[in-house]
Amino acid sequence: MRHVLCTALLAASLAAPAAARAGNLLDLAVVDRDTGSTLPTYLDHGTLYVAGTPGHRYGVRLSNRSGGRVLAVLSVDGVNAVSGETAATGQTGYVLDAWESTEIAGWRKSLDEIAQFTFTALPDSYAARTGRPANVGVIGVAVFTERAPEWRPHVDIAGQPAPPAPMEPETRSADRAAGNAAAPAASRPAAKAEGYARQEERLGTGHGAREYAHVDETTFERASRHPAETLAIRYDSTANLVAAGIIRRPVARFDPQPFPGGFTPDPR
Prior knowledge:
Elements: E1 2-6, E2 21-22, E3 26-32, E4 37-38, E5 42-44, E6 47-52, E7 58-64, E8 70-76, E9 79-80, E10 94-96, E11 101-104, E12 106-108, E13 113-121, H1 126-129, E14 138-145, E15 154-155, E16 161-162, H2 190-195, E17 203-212, E18 216-220, E19 229-237, H3 238-243
Parallel strand pairs: 1-10, 6-19
Antiparallel strand pairs: 1-18, 2-3, 3-4, 3-7, 5-6, 7-11, 8-9, 8-10, 8-14, 12-13, 13-17, 14-19, 15-16
């Protein structure tokens, strides 16, 4: 048992974006909080990408697709979004009830406050400013299912089975506020790496303004030490993803018209 946070968390082609990364247990999506839109994902060589807008705030939307509680350990740029540690799947995360959705909008500073996720230049990202720039540009979540309780009959001194002792209630959140294991980053093909802009031009996630986002602590016993599934989405600016060939440039098309109108002019 360990304390975790209880919060109120595809098919896609290269040219046609989708809305989210659907797992068996969890859906993962990135939301631009300044526009309110869910960022479309682009699939390239098995890796999903979203295009962020520099300066915009964003949130990570997590939706539990299962009928039981799950633990979501969220990594942003290789950093645990709750503890600030270099991310590992065995760390703390957010507990979602059956079929529950939530939006994690920042780095957890306390049970009541976050620092907003913002798209920013890589050198200004939280990971780079804390000396960990190597994994900037990827959002990941490791999902754990909960160990089922084992029921064993109790026997009283007369040899008769006694009812099981009541379980202690978990601490639950009265205000299930929308607030915040790194999935391994897929290696970018060499041809794509050549198309990328210089590192200082890439996007990272900044440590933005403080915001109220209350959560409570609860307990969660993992069914396994290993995640039941991991999901990951890479992100960068639209210009960089276009330069890398991940987002295709729109091609203007003109169709000849049989009756464009007007009278017959003299030839030149």
